[in-house]
Amino acid sequence: MVVTDEEVAAVGEVLRSGVLANGPEAAALERSFADYCGLDDAVAVSSGTSALVLAGLATGLESGAVVAVPSLTFAASANAFLSIGCRVVPIDVDETTMNIDPESLEITVERTPGVAAVVVVDLFGSTAGTDAAMEWARQRGLVVIEDAAQAHGALDGRGKRVGGRADITTFSLYATKNVAGGEGGLVTATTADVLDMVRRLRNHGGFEAYRHEMVGLNHRITEVSAVLARYQLDRLEDGNKVRRRNAAALAEWCVEAWGDAVAVPPEATNGDPTHVFHQFTVRFRRPEQRNRAMSALHELGVDARHFYPYVIGELPGVDSADAPVAESLRDRVLSLPVHPALTDDQLVILRDAVLSTSSDVRNA
Questions:
Q1: pLDDT class for 1, splitting at 50, 70, 90?
Q2: Is residue 143 helix, strand or coil?
């Protein structure tokens, strides 16, 4: 997360105001984000996980409800629903998109009685392949929850901005995200009633203090997080352009270095706006090639990371299920630095590091 002097000054103003939670900065962020997404409204909350919890509650998911979640994703995509008593069943993912596989979704729903909702995750900032899964779920009357924690500014396959296509969409404002507030989250929805429910639930069950219309908890965003995220939102489009430019360069270097041992995101080579490259993630042909590349890059000081070292079915409380594609990807994926704060000098170092590992990886 890069914080400018202007943002530091804005945080100082917030602190001096004495209004530190769910105040005018939160409201300003909600308006700005709704406008950006082409929507009427948005609700700011305390984290991306809170956003998912509230999405489940606001769409009527109750204890015992069955929720289908992609097998390759961060734990929050499952934990949020487990925390409100739902049963989580894993869905396998597609080898190329690494997002939910529509065929696996169909098979799992047909074999699992009582599935009420489907969580569609835009993994690493990509919406690739999600249109078909959403359409299939919608036709069968399932609640569609889009976990867009990593996809601020991404478009879907029809050119529509993420935020207005699922029944309810959640975003994270964690410090690493394309729009960052340190912590925080945002929720958008296709109906005002659902979003009003989120607004009540985040504030102990009421729109106003001490008027509790239902059971709720404190999921309010701080003013510091809100003001930081509002400034970061202003830079989102420029930042995403830089991410795509960096991704294009990375794709070229990876292919040059590792050849057919690796597959790069196809969106990286054509500037596809369905991907905003929260992470630049490649797929190696074999686990030992990934491990060799990661080890060699670490020795050269490159912060290459393995997201995620588990599949959802391995987590506590989640149904176990075969997810052969996700299990294979778990052992073969590697993410390289792509964020817009990379300097030209750092990109040169990154390029040279990737190219220097060519023989290590190819011979693994």
A1: confident
A2: strand
